[in-house]
């Protein structure tokens, strides 16, 4: 959401733009790709919509809802973070790197390589004041902590399995990552180059999507019971979908384990 215009956006197809004060829909915005992650960039007052399919990033003016450009990251993005001063960092999950984007020119300026430290970065948090990036990875399940200025790896720390979202609380110096195995990892920044796993909070299986309430410091997570529950929710292959009219090999279709009706749950974690 843009706190200036009070315009809010859903990461959907099409994007929905509405007034956060009265929930009135302003417009629908047709975009290409498959909208997934979403970020508000305050320096330019723009919305970044992330997609595993091209275009990797669609950028929308938060005031007008107009599409102002797209960005090719060279891979599939997961979560993004802005430093508020014109730099956007985006995890590129299938390339094991963090893309650095100039928010004013919409150009990728560099990639910070995570190879050998962490693979499949699935969540990202940023300490903008101290220029510290927390890239939370699947394989191995670690947080790769980097200098946001140059991509230098400072250290790595273990996290739970199946990470999907992360946040940083500047008031407490803590980074949080939520995992599908039912854990919330809390990393404490004790110094410019010193970090520790402060706590591993038991949540609920599948609670891998989360957000931070900046006013209270509470973390909110969502999940639901599964008909075929697993320690870490994963995509499972099912019937192949034939390609359309070009003779190409069938593409695999992937489905998530089905949810138990009326089991949707919101969890609140406080100190």
How would you characterize this protein structure?
This protein is an all-beta fold and 271 residues long. The protein has one domain (7-213): YVTN repeat-like/Quinoprotein amine dehydrogenase (Methylamine Dehydrogenase, Chain H), CATH 2.130.10. It is 0% helix and 50% strand. The protein is built from no helices and 24 strands. The strands form seven sheets. A four-stranded antiparallel beta sheet has the order 4-5-6-7, with no helix packed on it. Strands 8-9-10-11 form a four-stranded antiparallel beta sheet, with no helix packed on it. It has a four-stranded antiparallel beta sheet with strand order 12-13-14-15, with no helix packed on it. Strand 8 (77-82) and strand 9 (87-92) form a beta hairpin. The relative contact order is 0.08. Mean pLDDT is 91; it is low at 233-254.
Describe the main β-sheet briefly.
4 strands, antiparallel
Radius of gyration: 19 Å
Helix content: under 10%
Q: Quick check: average pLDDT?
A: 91
Q: Write down the overall geometry.
A: globular
Order of helices and strands: EEEEEEEEEEEEEEEEEEEEEEEE
Q: Indicate how many domains the architecture comprises.
A: 1
CATH superfamily: YVTN repeat-like/Quinoprotein amine dehydrogenase
Beta-strand percentage?
Answer: over 45%
């Amino acid at each position: 959401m843009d706190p200036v215009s009070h315009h809010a956006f859903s990461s959907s197809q099409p994007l929905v733009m509405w007034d956060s004060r009265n929930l009135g829909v302003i417009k629908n915005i047709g975009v290409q790709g498959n909208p997934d992650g979403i970020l508000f960039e305050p320096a330019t007052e723009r919305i970044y919509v992330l997609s595993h399919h091209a275009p990797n990033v669609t950028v929308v003016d938060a005031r007008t809802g107009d599409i102002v450009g797209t960005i090719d990251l060279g891979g599939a993005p997961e979560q993004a973070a802005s430093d508020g001063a014109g730099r956007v960092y985006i995890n590129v999950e299938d390339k094991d790197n963090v893309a650095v984007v100039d928010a004013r020119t919409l150009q990728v300026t560099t990639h910070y390589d995570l190879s050998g430290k962490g693979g499949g970065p699935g969540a990202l948090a940023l300490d903008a004041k101290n220029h510290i990036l927390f890239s939370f990875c699947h394989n191995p399940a670690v947080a790769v902590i980097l200098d946001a200025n140059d991509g230098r790896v400072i250290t790595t720390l273990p996290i739970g399995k199946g990470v999907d979202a992360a946040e940083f609380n500047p008031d407490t110096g803590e980074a949080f990552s939520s995992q599908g195995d039912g854990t919330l990892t809390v990393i404490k920044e004790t110094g410019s180059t010193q970090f520790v796993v402060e706590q591993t909070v038991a949540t609920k299986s599948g609670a891998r999507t989360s957000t931070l309430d900046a006013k209270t410091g509470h973390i909110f997570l969502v999940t639901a019971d599964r008909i075929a529950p697993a320690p870490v929710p994963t995509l499972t292959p099912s019937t192949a979908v034939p390609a359309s009219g070009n003779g190409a090999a069938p593409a695999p279709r992937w489905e998530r384990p089905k949810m138990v009706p009326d089991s949707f749950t919101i969890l609140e974690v406080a100190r």
